[in-house]
Amino acid sequence: MNAIGALGRNVLSLLGSAGAMVLFGLSGVSHLLRPPFYGRLFLRSFIDFAYFSLPVVALTAIFSGMVIALQSYTGFSRYGATSAIANIVLISVVRELAPVLAGLMVAGRVGAAMAAELGTMRVTDQIDALRTLSTDPMKYLVAPRLLAGLLALPLLVLVADVLGVGGGFLIATAKLGFEPHTYITNTVAFLNTADVVLSVVKAAVFGIIVSLMGCYYGYNSRGGAQGVGAATTSAVVSASILILAFDYVLTELFFSR
């Protein structure tokens, strides 16, 4: 009975945390619809998301495309189906690898930084000081970051799509002996608008998740430096799990016909 009671308490705690996150996110979004809007804070968060995250996302996409091309060639060459490698690289990168890996990389970089920044502000009473200055912390700290995540990650993923497919092209033509024109023709012929739309939609959802987890755990941090560290870890772990879970959900919604 004790085990059942502990399980019930954990489930209720999980549901309570999920509800608190949803309400926190809705509150942040609602502040985007009401003035004032802190454009400078949004621009700073957007640059942090898009510009400073670009190198790690680009490198991840390029090497992922290269690996997919090599692995596909290893498997398909046994059955004489190497002509499908361009299609496999395109589908793998655009539908899955680019949005998921970009989301995970940004969660580890930007999500952790958000949680640490807001957590430090919380434990040093800077968030309470904002209220004494008649500034709503949700509007000032959370809303601009949510919007930045929503807009910046799709741009990063579009870049990752191109670079990932380019990485596969580079390996296929330079190492595996494919004719460049034929490879490009096969890639363009197989490109589907629905795949690109899915990639962008996933990126937008993942951007919201990264921002929401970073802001939520940082905003609600407690317990000094140790609490800030715990909030940072929780933000990255929660964002990573939700990215993988929503990746399946969105894929099911798009391709369950």
Brief characterization of the structure:
The chain has 257 residues and is mainly alpha-helical.
How are the secondary structure elements laid out?
Elements: H1 2-32, H2 39-50, H3 54-76, H4 85-123, H5 126-132, H6 137-174, H7 180-190, H8 193-219, H9 224-255
Compute the number of structural domains: 1
Helix content: over 70%
Structural classification: mainly alpha
- What is the tally of beta strands? 0
Distance between the termini: 44 Å
Written description of the protein model:
The chain is mainly α and 257 residues long. It has one domain. Helix content is 86%, strand content 0%. The protein is built from nine helices and no strands. Helix 2 packs parallel to helix 6.
